[in-house]
Amino acid sequence: MFSDFKIHNIGVPDNEKNSVSDSGVNKQYSFRTASLRNLAFTYPYMHTGKFGTLQQVLEFYEDLGNGKIANPNVSANNIDPLTKNIAVDFKNIKLIVDFLNTLNDNYDKTIPPNVPSGLPSGGNIK
Question: Which of 41, 42, 60, 78 has the highest local Cβ count within 10 Å?
Answer without folding.
Answer: 60
